[in-house]
Amino acid sequence: VELSTEQRHIVGILCSNMSLRDAAFDELGCEPNDFPLPWRHVVNLMSLNHDMDVDALVAAPELALDSQLRQAVLALAHEYKTQDTQLEELKEVMDRVQRSRCEARVRELEFKLKQAQNNQRHDEVKTLFAELFEMTNEMRRLSGHESAS
């Protein structure tokens, strides 16, 4: 399964630079669910084991049976090891991922809101509208953060 440019960037950075994992998972909101299977297993392992180096990562049982994934992880780690990756770069990529996540959630909420309105489920409309308002504010915050950097 192919990763988006952002996903590839994040996995490469985190595979090759364990020191950025605390920030990625604890501060920047990196979520294993933002990645397709089987990559989700790799990101989940890193989120649970911030100090697991790439050799331990590819030896983990979750990756043991998938030689293609192991090779891809090693290649990404090697590719990013030679780069001088900074926390700022990781923040920018994570912002884009979070914005995409918010946009998808907004589309989903708009669809559900329309259904609830059509079926006159007023309590559900209120709840969905409140969540949609929060998501819209979150998107605005993320967009503002991008232009500030």
Walk me through what this model shows.
With 149 residues, this protein is mostly helical. It contains 8 helices and no strands. Helix 1 packs across helix 7. The radius of gyration is 18 Å and the shape is elongated. The mean pLDDT is 88.
Name some characteristics of this structure.
76% helix; mainly alpha; single chain; elongated; 149 residues
Q: Name the helix and strand elements from N-terminus to C-terminus, one letter apiece.
A: HHHHHHHH
Question: What's the shape?
Answer: elongated
Radius of gyration: 18 Å
Name the poorly predicted regions.
Answer: none
What fraction of residues sit in β-strands?
A: under 5%
Major pleated sheet: none
Helical amount among residues, as a percent range? over 70%
Mean pLDDT: 88
**Number of DSSP helices?**
8
Can you count the beta strands?
0
| Structural class estimated from helices and strands | mainly alpha
How far apart lie the N and C ends? 32 Å
Outline:
The protein has 149 residues and is an all-alpha fold. 76% of the residues lie in helices and 0% in strands.
Secondary structure: elements and pairs:
Blueprint: H1 5-16, H2 21-27, H3 39-48, H4 54-59, H5 61-64, H6 67-81, H7 87-118, H8 122-148
